Amino acid sequence: CEPLYNVAIIVPYRQRENHLKMFINNMHRFLSNQSISFTIYVVEHTCPTIFNRAILHNIGYKEAKAEQKFDCYVFHDVDLIPEKLENYYHCDNSPQHLVVTRNRTKYIMFSTRYFGGGVLFSPEHYELINGFTNKIFGWGGEDNNAYFRVLDKNLTIHRYPGSVASYTMFEHGWDTGNPRNDLIVDKREALHPTRNPE
Ligand code: UDP
Ligand code: MN
């Protein structure tokens, strides 16, 4: 039978070998069970600078697009595994925030502004928001920037209920090379994409 969707899974990555093994193992089964056609792109940060998660998203998008025609792009952390098969990894009419609840935060959704962990976009919507910021190095802010890019284009964010969009996140400490920056959500001005268009 012909799969209805061809989906690219873009995974930002550096020095999380165990996570990557568990991710690949779980996601192949999960996505196969959803009967979608998929390709997982692990985008490795090899240059020895502070980690830049969002730039890896953009690189993954470009590489995947050059290789195949995808109708949906999923940007997904390596340490998160979806728990429910009904959490479908394909695009409908809106950008979607995938990681609504997770084990480490007792399955409580903490903010509708949270847009981290895993999101998905159609190519049209990804290009409408001009992708993710390339400018943010270190931990924090790049997901909030993406949230405002979506809102600024008058798009709505789709979410499944927390009972469906639930995740297991692997335990981990702070990575070397990914220090926390101060670009948190209330610094909207500094992050605002129309002020920082690159
Ligand atoms: N990441 C990575 N190596 C690093 C830092 C981050 O591979 O040194 C990737 C990995 O996919 C990870 C994601 O970036 O899941 C987000 O980082 P982190 O898990 O630290 O953020 P959290 O959501 O746990 O605060
Ligand atoms: Mn994590």
UniProtKB/TrEMBL annotation:
One GO biological process this protein is involved in is: carbohydrate metabolic process
Q: In which pathway does it act?
A: Protein modification; protein glycosylation
Keyword Glycosyltransferase set for record = yes
| Gene Ontology molecular-function annotations | galactosyltransferase activity
Domain Galactosyltransferase N-terminal: residue ranges: 1-92
Instruction: Give the InterPro entries listed for this entry.
Output: Galactosyl_T, Galactosyl_T_C, Galactosyl_T_N, Nucleotide-diphossugar_trans
Which cellular components does GO assign to this protein? Golgi apparatus; membrane
Q: Which family does it belong to?
A: Belongs to the glycosyltransferase 7 family.
Q: What is this protein identified as? A: Galactosyltransferase N-terminal domain-containing protein
Organism the protein comes from: Capitella teleta (Polychaete worm)
